[in-house]
């Protein structure tokens, strides 16, 4: 395990990706109860990708596809079962907590549960600075004030407690706390899913402005494809732990190649009257991460599956600006 | 045209000194889906609960008119109302897990609804339940009847809820955010199912949602609520073709639409927050956030009536959006 850490990386310059994930795998054991057997759930299954500095990788997929586990492993909140994560060329597990906090920060879905209800907003935002242990109090106060203003909160709101703010204001607090150490990378896990559309628009605009200003790199996880289309430069589609399609965002939305990506796109209900509700053609079998189908893991729900899809495991095939794992793309016949 | 199945005029709901619904009016006809759309706290769910008389203790409900199938609901004693609920009018909620009893099987809960309202044997009720589970697209309904709610996925639970709501052949189905907790792919399936059931059974559906995409795809008529009032109401096509209340226009601009809004462009947004409506509040509740606000907006607001039953609550005249577009 330790041999990889001593590897020399000569070209660790501008070309080093902000996030690099190699053959990442994370499994969980589920106790089978008194008589049942323990089961193994494969949440992330041999996933590899990289995100360049300043890029936004959108990760989409249904609940249980492993997208939040992926975020937690990248943040080093969960150790990987195998494989590795490099952030700016370094393993997070080799860094101490303080250095890690200066490099990468999370923003979670629920600003109601991720803020300490007993602390004032300004103290919540100051916490990462204070935890560094070597920043003078005066400088902490200045940076907190500057950050609150930047995310659109007043000094007066800084004196309040989380319960006294609206959902959108709380998410602004979470953003201020994540950015106060000026990290390079932010992992956003469903950052607007609990918010109303008008508030969601404000938060998405704010995240976009901050990324441009601070040259941040985002990993942006969402179940909402319309949101991902708006923010991401590249999109990864996850299904039962694997990235089944990855492409530059415009290409993915213009010409999705994997049948699952097409079904996901078809289920986006845009505000266009007269179109009705599409038949996404996925049937009723729901994916179970504890029981991954043989062959192509998507074949039980796939509207264009062939007999070979039930036995043969698809390999990644290069597509326009990306890759997809579908047997129908491997053969001459295009789906 | 015959009288609407559900006719609500001037509905008000108050909790202590806050008014959650302030004079909302809408109607639902047989075979029609009417969507009530708005953001959290606008009063859309409270309006639905008020119709069912399921408001929390301490809430005060009043209305100029609240009529369901010719019966005055305001004058109906709770005992009679309880007979209507689950029978001629049924409701489904966002999170089916909180409305299904975890201690009873799907079959016994579904059968109870039927035997309670219609009597008959448990056996007959279970047969009917199995038939309805099949109708809402559940395979192996016999097996599902013997299962407990926690053994089902979220999508299956919502199908069970819908099947349970249909046990007594209701005329009106009130659905409060029925797909919000579901994955997009499952959401599409559930919405298709609702549309199909409506076609087959001639149901009237009152659907509460925050999602303008859902509204556009399944409603025949839309009412937009803001701060307890219906600020705009129109046939769906007309509302999306010519949104006339500044709030409706703002809300539509906030929604990212693949292929329509450019990546580097900011999304539209509505400045400020929803005001707290204190007793004695007057004027337009949106005026502090509105780009078209004028001094008169602090006074009584007229209800403008445009073509084809398109109404909105604003000082601006019908057709003002045409001059806006020209400018």
TrEMBL record, chain A:
ABC transporter domain residues: 19-265
InterPro entries the UniProt entry points to: AAA+_ATPase, ABC_transp_ATP-bind, ABC_transporter-like_ATP-bd, ABC_transporter-like_CS, Oligopep_ABC_C, P-loop_NTPase
Cellular component terms per the entry's GO annotation: plasma membrane
Keywords: ATP-binding, Nucleotide-binding, Transport
Membrane topology reported for the UniProt record: Peripheral membrane protein
Gene3D superfamilies hit by this protein: P-loop containing nucleotide triphosphate hydrolases (3.40.50.300)
Protein name: ABC transporter ATP-binding protein
Taxonomic lineage: Bacteria, Pseudomonadati, Pseudomonadota, Alphaproteobacteria, Acetobacterales
TrEMBL record, chain B:
Cellular component annotations (GO), alphabetically ordered: plasma membrane
GO molecular function, one term: ATP binding
Lineage of the organism: Bacteria, Pseudomonadati, Pseudomonadota, Alphaproteobacteria, Acetobacterales
Keyword Ribosomal protein annotated: no
Pfam families: ABC_tran, oligo_HPY
UniProt-listed GO biological process terms: peptide transport; transmembrane transport
Coiled-coil segments on the chain, per record: none
Keywords linked to the UniProt accession: ATP-binding, Cell membrane, Membrane, Nucleotide-binding, Transport
Family: Belongs to the ABC transporter superfamily.
Cleaved signal peptide residues: none
InterPro entries the record matches: AAA+_ATPase, ABC_Ni/Peptide_Import, ABC_transporter-like_ATP-bd, Oligopep_ABC_C, P-loop_NTPase
Species: Roseicella aerolata
Membrane topology: Peripheral membrane protein
Major site of localization recorded for this protein: membrane
Name this protein carries in UniProt: ABC transporter ATP-binding protein
CDD domains, A to Z: ABC_NikE_OppD_transporters
ABC transporter domain mapped to chain residues: 6-252
Annotated compartments: Cell inner membrane
């Amino acid at each position: 395990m330790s041999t990889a850490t001593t590897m020399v990386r000569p070209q660790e310059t501008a070309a080093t990706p902000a996030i690099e994930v190699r053959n990442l795998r994370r499994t969980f054991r589920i106790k089978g109860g008194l008589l049942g057997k323990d089961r193994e759930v494969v949440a992330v299954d041999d996933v590899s990708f990289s995100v360049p500095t300043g890029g936004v990788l959108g990760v989409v997929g249904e609940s249980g596809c492993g997208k939040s586990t992926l975020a937690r492993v990248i943040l080093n909140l969960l150790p990987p079962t195998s494989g590795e994560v490099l952030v700016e060329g370094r393993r997070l597990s080799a860094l101490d907590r303080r250095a890690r906090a200066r490099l990468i920060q999370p923003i979670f879905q629920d600003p109601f549960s991720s803020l300490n209800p007993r602390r004032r907003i300004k103290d919540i935002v100051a916490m990462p600075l204070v935890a560094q242990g070597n920043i003078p109090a005066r400088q902490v106060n200045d940076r907190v004030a500057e950050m609150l203003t930047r995310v659109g909160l007043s000094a007066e709101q800084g004196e309040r407690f989380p319960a006294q703010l609206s959902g959108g204001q709380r998410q602004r607090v979470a953003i201020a706390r994540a950015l106060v150490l000026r990290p390079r990378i932010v992992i956003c896990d469903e950052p607007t899913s609990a918010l109303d559309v008008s508030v969601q628009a404000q938060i998405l605009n704010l995240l976009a402005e901050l990324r441009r200003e601070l040259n941040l790199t985002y990993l942006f996880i969402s179940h909402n494809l319309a949101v991902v289309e708006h923010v991401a430069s590249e999109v990864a589609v996850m299904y039962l732990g694997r990235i089944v399609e990855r492409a530059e965002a415009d290409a993915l939305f213009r010409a999705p190649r994997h049948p699952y990506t097409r079904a996901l796109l078809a289920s986006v209900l845009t505000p266009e009257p007269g179109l009705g509700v599409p038949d996404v053609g996925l049937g009723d079998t729901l994916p179970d991460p504890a029981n991954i189908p043989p062959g192509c893991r998507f074949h039980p729900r796939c509207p264009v599956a062939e007999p070979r899809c039930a036995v043969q495991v698809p390999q990644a095939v290069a597509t326009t600006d990306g890759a997809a794992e579908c047997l129908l793309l491997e053969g001459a016949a295009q789906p | 045209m015959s009288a609407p199945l559900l006719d609500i005029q001037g509905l008000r709901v108050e909790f202590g000194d806050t008014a959650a619904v302030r004079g909302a009016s809408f109607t639902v006809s047989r075979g029609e889906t009417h969507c009530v759309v708005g953001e959290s706290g606008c009063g859309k769910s409270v309006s639905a609960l008020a119709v069912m008389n399921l408001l929390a203790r301490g809430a005060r409900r009043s209305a100029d008119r609240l009529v369901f199938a010719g019966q005055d609901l305001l004058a109906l004693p709770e005992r009679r109302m309880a007979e209507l609920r689950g029978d001629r009018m049924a409701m489904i909620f966002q999170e089916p897990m909180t409305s299904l009893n975890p201690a009873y099987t799907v079959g016994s809960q579904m059968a109870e609804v039927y035997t309670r309202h219609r009597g008959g044997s448990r056996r007959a009720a279970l047969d009917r339940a199995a038939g309805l589970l099949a109708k809402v697209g559940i395979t192996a309904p016999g097996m599902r009847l013997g299962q407990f709610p926690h053994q089902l996925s979220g999508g299956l639970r919502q199908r069970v809820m819908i099947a349970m709501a249909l046990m007594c052949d209701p005329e009106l189905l009130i659905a409060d955010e029925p797909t919000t907790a579901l994955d997009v792919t499952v959401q599409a399936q559930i919405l298709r199912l609702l549309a199909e059931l409506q076609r087959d059974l001639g149901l009237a559906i009152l659907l509460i949602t925050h999602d303008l995409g859902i509204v556009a795809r399944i409603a025949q008529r839309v009412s937009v609520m803001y701060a307890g009032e219906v600020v705009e109401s129109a046939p769906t096509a007309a509302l999306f073709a010519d949104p006339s209340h500044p709030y409706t226009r703002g809300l539509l601009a906030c929604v990212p639409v693949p292929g329509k809004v450019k990546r580097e462009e900011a999304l539209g947004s509505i400045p400020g927050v929803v005001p707290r409506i204190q007793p004695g509040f007057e004027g337009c509740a949106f005026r502090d956030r509105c780009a078209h606000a004028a001094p008169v907006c602090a006074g009584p607001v007229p209800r403008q009536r445009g073509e084809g039953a398109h109404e909105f609550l604003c000082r601006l005249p019908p057709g003002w959006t045409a001059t806006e577009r020209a400018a």
